[in-house]
Specification:
By secondary structure, the chain is an alpha/beta fold. The chain folds into three domains: about 200 residues, FAD/NAD(P)-binding domain (3-Layer(bba) Sandwich), CATH 3.50.50; about 110 residues, FAD/NAD(P)-binding domain (3-Layer(bba) Sandwich); about 130 residues, FAD/NAD-linked reductase, C-terminal dimerisation domain (Enolase-like, domain 1, 2-Layer Sandwich). Helix content is about 30%, strand content about 25%. The chain is built from 13 helices and 23 strands. Helix 1 packs parallel to helix 9, helix 3 packs antiparallel against helix 5 and helix 3 packs parallel to helix 7. The longest helix has 20 residues.
Length: about 475
């Protein structure tokens, strides 16, 4: 066996590439190993191809507003789904090519194959043991699919296979209405497919606020059949796959499994580390150092499933890459939690969810976009936003929203929470007219009315005029 490597990175997704960037600044004595396709989950089968599909779906759906705008001829527009999917794949391939360039010059420092841990300082790679001073586990995740569904073959789709299809439908069932299920089901419905969506829960897209969730549920039910509360069961019938949920039955051509993702830790050898594992075979990971116990082993990104989002995976790869080569691991302050679902209106959860807060110490500021000026002008006047602030200090704690252009509003709220701003401090900031951001101001004003007042000379006390077109 050769001299120990300084580190071995297991996995070349977003977290692995972020770790690689930091490792290469500090040493050339490393190895990055990846099993399966290179190019990251986000670029190949996740964020980017799904958003490309959603953009096409929303563009086509917009035709329904043309008549009210005074634009005629929308009835002549059609969606060429095979062409839509070809564009998704073409753009996807370009995104993947960009990700591949990040490892194109590594030479023998990269390896395609399977890595299995033999202990905290030893990794087997395709039958060859490699000694290492540290290990970074960034093995990512895979779609969750019940084993019995595999009998339906290629009629069961996940995001790993959805975008490879030359065509779809026309009848599709989406099982699971978390962020991914909500995005995909609405996009396919807007492209003209008959979509039936199923979820065992009563909340969608990661929301916990009942009022915001009710708004999203009502809007989605206008575009698809939505069954909630009962598990979905599948069976073969003449003409397709029957999906049943309680008393509900539907026969479809394809079923899209959108029940989340599971970490790729099977056969990884975590049991050889000598630390306790939970019922899912997962060790405890320090969220600020990414360290497993006191070992020189770090786990980043979807591999541990704590924050399965690209920006969090990139942050965790950065942390793991630094700490794997440090004398003592540093503790990093994590960013304000931020998740966005790219349905229409967009869903976002920022900071603390309502379910995580003490209702006796929290005030909620609300805005309904139905009468908001800019939203009405654009015919996007649907959705609502709830802000949560500490009753004693006025400091912003979190938000949940189902709002037009919610991705931009969510970033503003996240920046404010990260800077520990209060409701009144935010109200002292500029808001241009007419913008959707004025809706955020409406929610802030609503929260301010429930908080102790500030001095009258502060522009934060500048109230609404009472004219919707001016707010």
């Amino acid at each position: 066996m050769d001299q120990p490597l300084d580190t071995i990175i297991v996995g070349a997704g977003t977290a692995g590439l972020a770790a690689l960037r930091e490792v290469r600044k500090r040493t050339q004595n490393y190895l990055i190993v990846n099993e399966g396709p290179w190019g990251t989950t986000c670029a190949r089968v996740g964020c980017m191809p799904s958003k490309t599909l959603i953009e096409a779906a929303n563009a086509f759906h917009r035709r329904r507003a043309f008549d009210e705008f005074g634009l005629r001829g929308a009835d002549g527009l059609t969606a060429d789904l095979p062409a839509v999917l070809r564009r998704v794949r073409a753009l996807r391939d370009d995104f993947v090519a960009g990700a591949l360039r990040a490892t194109s010059d590594l030479g023998t420092a990269q390896h395609s194959g399977r890595a299995t841990l033999l202990g905290p300082g030893l990794v087997d790679i395709d039958g060859v043991p490699h000694a290492t001073r540290s290990i970074i586990i960034a093995t990512g995740s895979r779609p969750s699919v019940p084993e019995e569904w595999l009998a339906f073959g290629d009629r069961i789709l996940t995001t790993d296979t959805l975008f490879e299809q030359p065509n779809l439908g026309p009848r599709v069932a989406v099982i699971g209405m978390g962020p991914l299920g909500v995005e995909i089901s609405q996009a396919l419905a807007r492209l003209g497919l008959e979509v039936a969506a199923f979820t065992t829960g009563d909340k969608l897209a990661g929301l916990s606020d009942l009022s915001v969730n009710a708004e999203l549920t009502a809007l989605l039910k206008k575009e698809m059949v939505l069954h909630m509360g009962e598990p979905a069961e599948l069976r073969e019938v003449p003409g397709g796959i029957e999906v049943s949920s309680g008393s509900n039955r539907v026969v479809v051509d394809h079923v899209i499994a959108a029940m989340g993702r599971v970490p790729n830790i099977q056969h990884l050898g975590l049991e050889t580390l000598g630390v306790p594992l939970d019922d899912h075979g997962m060790p405890e990971v320090d969220p600020q150092t990414l360290q497993i116990g006191e070992l020189p082993v770090y786990m980043a990104g979807d591999a541990h499933g704590d924050r399965p989002l690209l920006h969090e995976g990139a942050d965790e790869g950065h942390i793991a890459g630094i700490n794997a080569l440090a004398g003592a691991p540093q503790r990093f302050r994590r960013r304000t939690p931020l998740s966005i679902v790219f349905c229409d209106p967009q869903v976002a959860v920022v900071g603390q969810r309502l379910a995580d807060l003490d209702c006796n110490r929290t005030v909620t500021g609300t805005v309904d976009f139905q009468d908001q000026g800019r939203a009405r002008a654009a015919l996007h006047n649907h959705g609502r936003l709830h802000l949560y602030a500490d009753q004693a200090t006025g400091r912003l704690q979190g938000a949940e929203m189902c709002a037009p252009q919610g991705e931009h509003l969510a970033h503003l709220v996240a920046l404010a929470i990260q800077q520990k701003l209060t409701v009144h401090e935010l109200l002292g900031m500029p808001f241009y007219h007419p913008t959707l951001e004025e809706g955020l101001r409406t929610a802030l004003r609503d929260a301010a009315r429930q908080l102790p007042s500030v001095r009258e000379s502060d522009l934060a006390t500048c109230g609404d005029i009472g004219v919707p077109a001016l707010e």
